[in-house]
Write a structure and sequence with these properties.
Blueprint (H helix, E strand, L loop, with lengths): L7 H7 L1 H9 L19 H6 L2 E6 L1 H18 L3 E5 H4 L10 E7 L5 H12 L3 E6 L5 H5 L2 E4 L12 H20 L5 H23 L2 H10 L4 E6 L3 H16 L2 E6 L16 E6 L6 H19 L3 E7 L4 H5 L2 E5 L7 H19 L18
Parallel strand pairs: 1-2, 1-3, 3-4, 4-5, 6-7, 6-8, 8-9, 9-10
The structure holds 5-amino-5-deoxy-1-O-phosphono-D-mannitol (M6R).
Subcellular location: Cytoplasm
Keywords: Aminotransferase, Cytoplasm, Glutamine amidotransferase, Repeat, Transferase
Subunit structure: Homodimer.
Amino acid sequence: EKGGFKHFMLKEIYEQPRAVRDTVQGRISLDTGRVYLDPMNITEGEFRRFDRVMIAACGTSWHAGLAGKYMIEQLARVPVEVDYSSEFRYRNPVLDERTLLIVISQSGETADTIAALREAKERDARVLAICNVQGSMITREADGTILTHAGPEIGVASTKAFTAQMVALYLFALYLGQLRGIISSDEARRHAQQLAELPVKIEHLLSDTDRVEELAKEFFRATDFLYLGRGINFPIALEGALKLKEISYIHAEGYPAGEMKHGPNALIDERLPVVVINTREQGNRASELRYEKTHSNIVEVKAREGIVISVLTEGDEMSSKVSDHVIEIPAASDLLSPILAIIPLQLLAYHIAVRRGCDVDQPRNLAKSVTVE
Ligand code: M6R
């Protein structure tokens, strides 16, 4: 059942090329760049009229939602707010019929997220679900669903569902951007091409994991980890930290790289591994700027004796030179590179947890789906 893998989590990490391919399959045309969503009770007219998107989710799905905010705001130019489902419900959220609530859930049975969905429907908002289980409560109650085709996820730590969720959000952002006339057909075709190339890049990443295993060997005794990222890499920092906490029981925190000087810098010493995600898209000004700023953050961590493990784009020299350790990922566009960047971090958490003798697929105190509020 584990297909020759030692744990479900590892098997599921290796299923990501397929999960991504299946989630994209049939939903975007390489010739026209047009996105086709599954039939739903939300009309194109309604999608054009929404003036606000809200996202509610928990845990890893919430991290996907944070990444989705960058995608939707960038590609469709609609303001997006992201909430933990458990908070959304209790803060008397402002929403009406021009608000679209997106709920994201692997299982479709998370009680907090179901409660958020019901709350929104009561206030006349439309609800779109991104979900991995057809027929689950969330898919039955939402006005529409984009199914992630990651396949059953058994390991408590979510991996392939997360990358599939980000792909679904990207498709949705493209869809909305096209409907609203923000994305030209040339651009749409380019996006379709980039999405089509993703699975091969993931395969490439997974074909050589020696570096990550060496790092696990070097750092599995650490008591704390910090993960930093800027822009869309910030949710990846959070997700990298969650994976580590969840399965290895090492204290880890994710932070926006720019926040370090506002407090967390005080934590840095020669024993603290700091994982910095600093990918770049050559020729994209916003990405280059973010890259340079994060590069300065790496230099600052080094100046305080911290140990820097950087996740960088293949061939990057500048940040590579100032880092203690480097994990390279294939080049990709700014909004798609997080789908690659998370993979070595999933593997790092996995190999550290195995070395610590933890029960990777069934971490203590956790359940795969949380059906109570
Ligand atoms: O099934 P859901 O996506 O709604 O679950 C949400 C969280 O409980 C889930 O992502 C949790 O954080 C995972 N254990 C993370 O790996």
